[in-house]
Amino acid sequence: MVRITEQLIRKRSEHNELIISTLEELSLHQEDIERIEHIGNWCRDLKILLLQSNLISKIENLQKLKKLEYLNLALNNIERVENLERLESLEKLDLTLNFIGELTSIENLRDNYNLKDLYLTGNPCTDYPGYRDYVICALLQLETLDGSEITRTDRLKVMKDFKANRDRIVQLELAYRIERDEQKIRVAESLREQEKRVKDLDEEERSAQFWQQKSEHCPETRIQMAKYSAKAREKPPTSSLTDSEGAKKRKPILFAECGRPYSLNEPKIKFEFFDEDDRYELNLHVYKYLDTSFIEVDAQPNYIRATIKGRIFQLALKDEIKTHASTCKRSATTGHMLIVMPKLNPQNVNFVPIRNTAYSENVANRSKCEKQQELKGTVDYKNIVKHGKKTEIDEDEIPPLI
């Protein structure tokens, strides 16, 4: 039997930072829970409670949930609607695919004046003639039944026949109760016979025989199915390896034979890597609620390694880094971890030129001299080229035109 524990509720409240006292939505589906307990004391602010696909046989211990608006109890073993009168904020109730045969028990919901939607599909009571007409008259506050809208016309049509319809349903309930008692006896005898047949068989053969035999649709059968399913989940997977070989865990290969580091991501976490001119930046998307004590970071000249709960994340680096100057910071909001690794020999780094006063003075003096040497007056352009002897030109020295 699976019990509702504080650890289980905290496990399902990660969206509320594991705080259960202020929890407004709780999902405990597919946990094989057989009894509702503790939720009303620990989570009084709940507005949505999902308990579908369990083995709950009775509605109980929910009277303190004054703010509860939606309750889902589909696919359970409930046979009667009860103990919901004090849920004054309840607007939607889902009881799909249960074993409710006592249809008149829904009259316990008359005080739930906020109840608008009710789902009873898949219950034995839905097979009773006049089922819908009876529910419409019994619960006047309903707006939809099994997903179908209830109009004022529908309610007026069936109101006059309510008493006769209810009397007929009470007789059908008595017949169903007798049939249900007989079914319990048959199923109990069938289970005893089955235990005798399979007592000499191993667990695998018992399970195979159970799934192959025919069975009745009832709460007892559903419990047996859940037990065999739980055993199948607990069974270790078969392997061709021997016990000694299976016990040895595969060690990850971190380096090649030549000593070159490999890159690997055992924890399978997301990351972002930036290759800047003067540094490397690695942003690891570490799980938000993972304690920092489970994380180890090792920076080496040509690789960075982070060990997260025993699983290795390693990234090979193209350029060597300054290990002593590397930093590692973790965000308190997202849980992400930023590792900054300065490069040992930065490449393509653009330095901002610093103003040199001596160089500025030299340029100023040069421009001053040029101003002093400026031409004044007219220029004798006729004597720029001095006339003298004509020199002969050696045509062999002149390169040919292309």
TrEMBL record:
GO terms for cellular component: cilium; cytoplasm. SUPFAM superfamilies: L domain-like. One of its GO terms (biological process) is outer dynein arm assembly. Keywords: Cell projection, Cilium, Cytoplasm, Leucine-rich repeat, Repeat. The keyword Repeat applies. Pfam families: CS_DNAAF11_C, LRR_9. It comes from the Eukaryota. Residues 224-343 form the Dynein axonemal assembly factor 11-like CS domain. It is found in: Cell projection, Cilium; Cytoplasm. PROSITE patterns: LRR. Belongs to the tilB family. This is Dynein axonemal assembly factor 11-like CS domain-containing protein. It comes from Aedes aegypti (Yellowfever mosquito).
